[in-house]
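Batch manifest, entry 17 of 40.
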Amino acid sequence: MQIDDTDRRILRQLLAEPGLATADLALRAGVTAATCWRRIEKLTQAGILKGQHAVVDWRRLGWAVEVSLRFTLDKTNPRAFDEFLVAAREVPEVIEIQTFLGRVDVRLDVIARDMRHYQEIYRERILTLPHIADIESLMLVSTIKETGSLAL
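Output type: structure tokens
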């Protein structure tokens, strides 16, 4: 699907403030509410706009520790990826799972209330995941830039 300047204006406004009501979004994008709604529907149907969601600040809810775990899997088992991913999805503290090509196969983002809680999660849930050949842990210190947007 080709997008035009109107679509770009709508997308820019959505990225800037995802919670805007359609009428407010339309006003900011310089179109009618009906046009805005139709454009959003087209962008969604084309898979360009995947949806809107809430972004939770886990630290404000008492989840003070965030660790990125990078896994290299033992690929001698042809089902290693599938079995690892099924088990990783079952860990409630895993908030993101990504797969890669290269030395690292999978990355899990894990949150915990504090270091003691993280150690419990690591020992009881992470180390029991199947087919792990190697783990690298990176503890989040601060987020400098967090955006899903590019210039439109």
